[in-house]
Task: inverse folding
């Protein structure tokens, strides 16, 4: 009887079986690392890690992905990369296969995208080298840019493509880096200006939403860390974080806050609890800032609704039926 071929192996063996092309397919027991034909995948055919390719001259190489990946897939990529024999050229590119789920040959557009990615990475390392202060960072990024440029030319030679239009990598500390530094400084200034304008627009939008929220016309959220706001709707105080509690509770708490401001002695919850509906005040700062759970409410915000709270009769209860929105 012929021996049944084995297709399921330990995870550590899969990359070596693929790298040395010992069989056409295999997978680990979890099924999240496997290869079919020339291509090895992590968690499915949507993520090819690497692929064996052959040139018209019969030479062999490997296309290895530069795509972003999860922690587990990163581990898969690491063991696959380590398993590739040193004699095999490896091209690090974003497009390993034509089409998301295909193992077919790359098209002219695929090659163009891969070469554009080489150029982008080279420029990034040149810029980083030019801006770096430490000699290690300067040299490492410069060497990496040089290596990528060589890899890009080797990629074209392997696939019989025209010589790529990739600029020379300037020598370390050469005058050729001066225009690069200036160009990068200009980009940084333009980006800072764009960010400033966006922040201004965002601030205006939030300012408008604050006014609408206080008027009861806006019910969306605000960014994390945005100052907590208060408004009164009917017989409740509502916060911009979504909490609500009776006006009568707010009126009693207001007197505590005023006492703290007058005495300049912070209140910290201990045996005595100040209730605001189902919530409790954790701390009142000498300046009147109130902290309750995730809420931090400034004295200015409390003072804004204080006139209304002062107008509520002391005998009023949580069932007061006011309709005012502040």
Result:
């Amino acid at each position: 009887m012929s021996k049944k071929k084995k297709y399921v192996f330990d995870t550590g063996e899969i990359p070596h079986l693929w790298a040395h092309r010992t069989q056409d397919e295999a997978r680990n027991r979890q099924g999240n690392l496997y290869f079919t034909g020339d291509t090895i995948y992590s968690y499915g055919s949507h993520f090819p890690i690497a692929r064996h390719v052959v040139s018209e001259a019969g030479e062999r190489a490997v296309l290895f992905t530069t795509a972003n990946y999860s922690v587990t897939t990163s581990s898969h990529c690491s063991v696959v990369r380590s398993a590739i024999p040193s004699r095999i050229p490896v091209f690090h590119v974003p497009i390993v296969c034509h089409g998301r789920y295909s193992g077919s040959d790359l098209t002219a557009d695929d090659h163009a995208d891969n070469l554009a990615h080489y150029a982008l990475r080279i420029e990034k390392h040149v810029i980083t080298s030019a801006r770096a202060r430490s000699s290690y960072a300067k040299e490492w990024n410069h060497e990496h840019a040089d290596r990528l440029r060589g890899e890009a030319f080797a990629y074209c030679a392997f696939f019989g493509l025209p010589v790529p239009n990739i600029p020379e990598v300037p020598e370390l500390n050469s005058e050729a880096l001066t225009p690069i530094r200036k160009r990068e400084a200009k980009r940084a200034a333009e980006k800072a200006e764009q960010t400033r304008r966006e922040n201004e627009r965002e601030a205006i939008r939030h300012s408008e939403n604050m006014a609408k929220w206080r008027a009861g016309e806006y019910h969306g959220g605000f960014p994390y860390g945005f100052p907590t706001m208060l408004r009164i709707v009917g017989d409740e105080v509502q916060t911009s974080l979504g909490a609500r509690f009776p006006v009568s509770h707010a009126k009693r708490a207001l007197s505590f806050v005023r006492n703290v401001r007058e005495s300049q002695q912070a209140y910290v919850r201990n045996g005595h609890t100040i209730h605001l509906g189902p919530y409790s005040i954790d701390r009142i700062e000498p300046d009147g800032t109130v902290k309750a759970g995730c809420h931090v409410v400034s004295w200015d915000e409390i003072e804004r609704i204080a006139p209304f709270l002062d107008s509520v009769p002391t005998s009023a209860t949580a069932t007061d039926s006011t309709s005012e929105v502040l």
The first strand starts at residue 8 and ends at 9. The first helix runs from residue 14 to 19.
